[in-house]
Amino acid sequence: MWSPGQACIAQFSLDAKWYRGEVLEIRDSGECLVKFVDYGSEELCNPQNLRRGLFLTDIPVQCFTVQMDIQPVMMKWEESVLDFIHKTVVEQVLKVTIIPGRKTFPMLVRLVTKAGLNIGELFVRNGYAREVNSTTLDGYI
């Protein structure tokens, strides 16, 4: 039986490999919502795909939550926009600059490519997002 807050090793559905995780919640179906702590992604996992035998416990978590200084044009991000964001930033070398002002997580950041392209400005120019100031960003992670 699993409970929220428990550390685990969880099998990720897309590649069937095992990664460090944390159980966030247990659903009525018995599935566990797991956060893959070194990547930041979350996934519903069947309990049979979770293990208690931890490894790499001497290595700190390799991910923490950040937030860009943009928000969706509508009330929430559309799936097509999320797909575009994923294709634009995943597996890319980006310079991450923390924007001063926020004292708690998620930290506000600016993402810039090796060529100097500001990702947030790109999304705004293409109509995928709108710029906002840091005081109005809460809730748009």
Secondary structure: elements and pairs:
Layout: E1 7-11, E2 18-26, E3 32-36, E4 42-45, E5 50-51, E6 66-68, E7 70-72, H1 79-89, E8 94-98, E9 107-113, H2 119-125, E10 129-131
Parallel strand pairs: 6-9
Antiparallel strand pairs: 1-2, 1-5, 2-3, 3-4, 7-10, 8-9
Briefly say what this structure is.
With 141 residues, the protein is mainly beta. The protein has helices at 79-89, 119-125; strands spanning 7-11, 18-26, 32-36, 42-45, 50-51, 66-68, 70-72, 94-98, 107-113, 129-131.
Which features characterize this protein?
141 residues, mainly beta, three-stranded mixed β-sheet, 33% strand
How would you write the strand order of the largest sheet?
4-3-2-1-5
**Annotation field: number of helices:** 2
Strand content: 25-35%
Instruction: Estimate the global geometry from the Cα principal axes.
Output: elongated
The computed structural class is: mainly beta
Largest sheet data: 5 strands, antiparallel
Tally of extended strands?
A: 10
H/E element string?
EEEEEEEHEEHE
Indicate the multimeric state.
single chain
Cα end-to-end separation: 30 Å
Cα Rg: 17 Å
Q: Helix share of residues?
A: 10-25%
What is the averaged pLDDT score?
Answer: 88
User: Low-confidence stretches at least 5 residues in length (pLDDT < 50)?
Assistant: none
